[in-house]
Design a protein that fits this description.
alpha+beta, Aminopeptidase, seven-stranded mixed sheet, 7 strands
């Protein structure tokens, strides 16, 4: 399974993965990477360009029956390798070890263009992470 850049034909499958994960709204993204098994999309990483040379990982989602198989890691690597940018994401506390192991660092100085992409949360802490170009760590 090799991650590949998503096409417009993949949008319904990505939306189905979002619904399976319990997200109510359809994904909005500038680019995405998908993983196929046979004819089925089993994972996706969605990316939004916050500003030039600044990319935001909006979601990493994997089919429930395929989680823990490295699909999300492979997709994240494909997205990060696709462009030389400062990468941002926001995640739950329990995901911090995974993302910090891939070169992301917790950041307090979040640009307004990135912060605007994430609705304020009152139900949990908002952890913004940044990965700068040329990060020495590889994903996986």
């Amino acid at each position: 399974m090799n991650p590949q850049q998503a096409t417009d034909e993949d949008r319904p499958s990505i939306a189905a993965l979002f619904r399976e994960a319990g997200w109510e709204s359809d994904p909005v993204f500038d680019e995405a990477w998908v993983a196929y098994e046979g004819d089925h999309v089993v994972g996706a990483v969605t990316v939004i360009e916050a500003e030039p040379n600044t990319a935001f990982i909006d979601a990493v989602v994997v089919a429930s029956n395929r989680r823990g198989c490295g699909i999300g890691t492979d997709l994240l690597q494909a997205a990060l390798s696709a462009r030389d940018a400062t990468w941002w994401l926001e995640c739950r506390e329990e995901l911090l070890p995974f993302y910090t192991s891939t070169g992301f660092e917790v950041a307090a100085d979040v640009p307004a263009s990135v912060r605007a992409l994430v609705a304020p949360r009152t139900d949990r802490a908002q952890n913004f992470l940044r990965r700068v170009p040329g990060s020495a760590r590889s994903v996986g």
